[in-house]
Design goal:
Length: 375
């Protein structure tokens, strides 16, 4: 069964890659393909309850995109050649909030990893169709790449629910754009979801997502909000485990949430988001939610400062099948970052993150991140 499942997944990815390559082969003589190479190296120092030092070339990402007529294609290949870490103290063996947090910071063992690979329509009136591998519409913080965001990692709430790489899966998306004087979008997405083979999938073995997005403004002053609901089984939507890459379980999850943003470019930007999850297993029901906010000030062109406070656990309740409930510990995380940009091709970021849980001692994380982008 596992062999069959892997074959189906491989065939699906091969099909999408084939469409992607054929699309480019036909449009390359008419439209220039935009190709970029991005690198991301990271030194991390964890101090406090557990001590760990880590150096990694976190990403070496090759991206290509282009379009012709009503067709647009995009592909990203991520290479992780180096990931070195050593511990000055042994991490606790028992399950704990801090154990989940620490292991979520360590990149997985894959050498090559396909990120977004999809084909999409463009320019058609009132709708767009996308097929391939893409991000779920669960807020801007989920889909932002390392080069764009103002912090080293995604918010703790996003990492906890969807993993270090966010909600990213194979699927189909249909977006509707009503004829309004502002940008309003209704998004429907269906993802591969369950780890079961296609032959044995039921209706709730897929992941279904419905979202609305509303945007306003021009390039200098803009903003908007989004709301979403998702239900089903998705390997990217379970609790994090070691390395943040393995499948924890295949139980039913349901998500509600949204985010709102405001930008006064290039001086100030902010984003606030809330995600609630109902996680149903055979004997327990976990209801967990997190509220995060991000603020970034850019006083000069080459320097910016970011502040991100968030609270995870409003609410955070575990209900048992035999009756009764338990309040799980809340987690507070605060991040402060300073980013220096050089000639729009390189960035250096210093960041401190404090993770404070009611169930464990504080954990401090110090980051030194270097990035580049070549187009």
């Amino acid at each position: 069964m596992k062999k069959y499942q892997k074959s189906v997944r491989f065939f699906f990815k091969l099909l999408i890659s084939g469409i992607f390559i054929l699309s480019f082969s036909k449009l390359s003589h008419i439209y220039a393909i935009e190709i970029s190479l991005r690198g991301n190296s990271l030194f991390s120092a964890f101090t406090g309850k557990n001590n760990m030092f880590m150096f990694s070339i976190r990403n070496l990402e090759l991206s290509a995109s282009g379009g012709r007529g009503f067709l647009f294609a995009k592909g990203e290949l991520d290479i992780q050649p180096i990931n070195l870490s050593f511990f000055t103290d042994a991490i606790e063996k028992k399950n704990s909030e801090m154990q989940d947090f620490l292991t979520s910071q360590v990149a997985g063992r894959e050498f090559f990893r396909a990120k977004e690979v999809y084909v999409s329509t463009r320019g058609l009136p009132f709708f767009r169709i996308t097929l391939g591998r893409f991000y779920g519409a669960v807020g801007n913080a989920n889909s932002q790449k390392f080069w764009i965001r103002n912090f080293v990692e995604r918010p703790f709430t996003v990492r906890y629910f969807f993993g270090q790489n966010g909600f990213l899966d194979d699927g189909l998306e249909i977006s509707l754009f009503p004829p309004l004087p502002w940008t309003f979008e209704i998004v429907g997405q269906i993802f591969d979801g369950s780890v079961k083979s296609w032959a044995s999938k039921g209706s709730f073995d897929l992941t279904y997502l419905l979202a609305i997005r509303n945007y306003f403004g021009e390039e200098d002053i803009s903003g908007g909000f989004s709301l979403f609901w998702a239900v089903g089984k998705n390997f990217a939507s379970q609790r994090l485990v070691a390395k943040g890459t393995h499948i924890a379980s295949d139980n039913l999850s349901e998500f509600f949430g949204g985010d709102a943003s405001f930008n006064f470019q290039p001086y100030f930007s902010m984003n606030v988001g809330y995600i609630l999850r109902r996680f149903q297993s055979p004997t327990i029901l976990d209801v967990e939610a997190g509220l995060y906010s991000e603020f970034n000030v850019n006083p000069v062109r080459f320097f910016s400062v970011g502040l991100r406070p968030e609270i995870f656990g409003i609410p955070r309740i575990r209900e048992f099948e035999e009756g009764g409930s338990q309040n799980l510990p809340q987690i507070f995380e605060l991040s402060i970052s300073a980013t220096f940009s050089a000639y729009e091709i390189a960035k250096i970021r210093l960041q401190w993150t404090g993770n404070f849980s009611e169930a464990s001692l504080p954990q401090n994380i110090f980051y030194l991140q270097t990035m580049f982008e070549l187009r």
